[in-house]
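Worked example

This section walks through a single chain of length 242. The input is the sequence exactly as stored; nothing has been trimmed or padded.
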Amino acid sequence: MTYAISDIHGCYEEYIKLLEKINFSENDTLYILGDICDRGEKPMEIYNDIMARDNVIPLFGNHEHLAYINLRHLIKNDVSKLTKDERLDLIDWLTSGGKPTFSEFISLSKADRMDFMEFLKSFSMYEDITINGKRFVLTHAGLGGFSEDKPLDEYTLHELIWERADYSKRYFSDPNTFLVTGHTPTANIPNHGRPEAYKANGHIAIDCGCASGGRLCAYCFETDSEFYVDKINQSLENHFKM
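Given that input, the structure is written out below as tokens.
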């Protein structure tokens, strides 16, 4: 089977529990639509798990982008050697949820830091797959500046990982083509308002806000079905956070 998960945000226990729930095996394929890091306490454990698997394909999210921008200066140096602007960028990232990722990164050896940064650089910006006659375009956030005749490789990084999809409109005229995204918590999608996958207008949105108290969702492409794991030891009261 082929699955997609998005916006794990350091929720390692929930991630492992969800893999167990779908009976994920070496015969399956998993796409992770970005934002593996930040907010939750164990981002590096998730990255290490992904690196150990040949059948998990990670996509670049806006939080990977923030992590890369800031951590590239710390591969061989410590914070004391950052410039003023670099320190300001770091503070901005830390206040946006980057503290767990930063803390785990600086505890790594220099060699492991370099390996991790090379790993981030290997992430896909998008994926375009066909399963059972249906086409699925996978990105972290959406397709900003969308035009149906615009090749996917002409979209900018910002359009793919920062600009939110407009879930009120269909992007592709072909009814068998779907845009699969994370980034926007499904509880914040108008007229949806709950931490469940959103499937309408040619969209499949699967960020169910786990790190903010919602749920972690796995979508199965072959069966058009979803699997959920609740945030461990946290209520749903904060799942409306972006």
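What to look for: The longest strand covers residues 215-220.
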